[in-house]
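FAQ: What does the model actually see?

It sees only this:
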Amino acid sequence: MFLIGLALSVWSGTQIAKAQVPKNGNLNQIAILIELQDTKFSNPQSIVDAISGPTASSVSLDNYFKVASAGKVTIQSHFPKVGNNLFIAKLHYTSSDLFEFGTEATGVLNLKSEAFNMVFKAAIEMVKDKFPTNVNFDLNNDNLLDIVSFHLAIKPPNDYGLPSFYGNFPLDGATINGKGILNVVVHTYQETDGIVKADAGQKMLSVMCHELMHAFGIGEYYYFEGLPLWHLALHQWDVMSSGVSMPLLLPSAHLRGRLGWIDIPEITTAGRYTLYPATSGRTNGVAYKILTNADPAGREYIVIEYRRYGGLNAIDGGVLDPWGEHHGLNGSGLVIYKVNTNFEGNNTGVYPRQESEVISKSELIAYRPGLTPTQFDGNNPGEMTGCVIAYKNLERSFFSADVGRTAFTPNTDPYPFLANGTRINDIFISNISSAGETISFDFSRTGVNVNSVSLDKTSISVRLGKGDQKLTPTILPENAAIGSVTWSSSNNSVATVSAEGVVSFVGVGSCTITVTTTEGNKTATCSVTVADPPAFPVIDVADEYPLGVITIPFRVYGVGAEKLTVFKVNGVEATEIKPHQGQPLGYEIEASSADGKIKITTHVIVK
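And it is asked to produce this:
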């Protein structure tokens, strides 16, 4: 089930940019729980605790904004009470009065804005005298309540996602403590088996924070075209790039800087620099930006920040949520992303299907292995509808010595580039340290001479018919100015090699593959031995595959291989393996003849 965070202005047509919520100071939020005729909260206190937190150190919405703003914003949420008891507005409306529900596949088809308007007005009428009069709910003195959030228990006909949303719209004539209403955040909680489950508040916490960020004037940073949501630009380590319910993660430093919550100084001179984690509470030393001569106007530049992997409900880099799904990063390190100020947000209102459009038309793009100016995973190109591998690479979009990603230069994977595809040749980040209380790196505008080159394989032994294999060179030092290489084979009748280092096996025998650096003529070699084809058919698979969509059929080679044309996965004919994200799985692969008389099997692991 998806819990969707949207920025909507379904009543007045006004835009997020017109938000009136002050960006610093002590804000007081009015929060109202609403039950309908067909719904009930089993534990409304869980909603209260998720918003306010029972203690000052609780993971809650109020405490989240203290951290995200580095203390520039404090939010205290107030709920209507009768005496010391929470008051819930119980209304004689049903869920179908508010939503037009479709099938489980289509989800919510429409929000009935007039009905929402009536429900909110009715709820305000019931609670308007149940808030303290000595609290300032209008910090900027515009005669409007700063923040109002409605929390609705909703019963859809199927188990599918319900939208939460933010809007600037007036509820004409509705007031609390004499103040009007413009900024409204709406959260919906799905009722199951007659009640909204007790842990609904914590599961919605990330969505609550996402929506309240809209109230501060921040837009969407994911693309979507119905479902599923596409977080391919930033992934879920940025709360504004996520529409799922868990975990609770900070906005990017770029967005925090835009709101004036932190400082992002520009690096202009070569040297060694140190960063503190995003959750350090510091207003400085948590991010840097680097401009490039490739864009003299300065509209595009690089931002670097430090995200630390945490446990459940951590609000820094990434965690595993209670359902075993991984969100955000799978380790600690530098996050490096491109800022394109020609756009504001990653949701431009046009939902492009082409990866190149998303990359070129997004304000923020996180660099990760395989990213190129036209593809999210140039190593494994695919359509937008099959980007699980790109998701996996996004989880690896961090740099540290702990994982061997210690450089970001014009010669690394990934490399810095502009929206128009221009390679940035004056940003060299190298010698990235391990991730600890801080993380450090070197920066320079130019590289150095090549000292050496090595290959990830020094020998390959295969039988004829085996599929191609790729060799990957490593040039040292990692901030070398020129990283290009050439390839050659000592015997092209045995094996050939492409300009990208892909080795193809064409005949029985032995040869040597050599890589040579353009600068310095440094070399490394890999010996290749190709034996006779196997005497029986063999399915050409790896023992293990990274998480992603695997296209079938597999190559089959050896004597009689041409007869095996039917493929099954776990006993069912299939054209692809598409594992669920975050679930390592084993698969039995079967290849058989059309008449079923010849059959071979093998197993693969996807993780």
